[in-house]
Design goal:
Elements lengths: L15 H8 L2 H15 L21 H6 L1 H9 L14 H9 L1 H10 L7
Helix pairs in contact: 1-2, 5-6
């Protein structure tokens, strides 16, 4: 499970893009694309809804791969998750996620210090 916790602490195994990818569920891709397009006011097509996890090897959504500030920061700093970053408690970028989803912080804390080669 540790690999399926995103840099920010969200659980990729609960993400509709991940679920649609691993189960090859076209209806879930369509539903998720519609919802995400409405929420973000951008065009998102069902074929954009493919992701094998933020920290896992393989395909990611365009947002996770290229746009997510948290993922880009973690990759730049070389941390396994935001938990390993000394700026976590005062980080406004990660703070947005942690305020909206308390389970993300719980997930990060449960990770402990883990090595990059996990």
């Amino acid at each position: 499970m540790k690999k399926m916790i995103a840099y920010c602490g969200l659980n990729c195994e609960k993400c509709d893009a991940y679920l649609a990818t691993v189960s090859d569920d076209q209806k879930l891709r369509e539903k998720t694309a519609k919802l995400w397009a409405e929420l973000n006011d951008v065009p998102i097509l069902p074929e954009h809804i493919n992701c094998q996890g933020c920290r896992a090897d393989g395909i990611k959504t365009v947002f996770c791969d290229n746009i997510c500030d948290i993922r880009q920061c973690a990759l730049k700093k070389g941390v396994v998750t935001c938990r390993d970053c000394s700026d976590l408690e005062r980080c406004s970028t990660a703070g947005k996620i942690l305020e909206n989803d308390p389970s993300a912080l719980k997930n990060l804390k449960s990770q402990g210090k883990i090595c990059k080669g996990e």
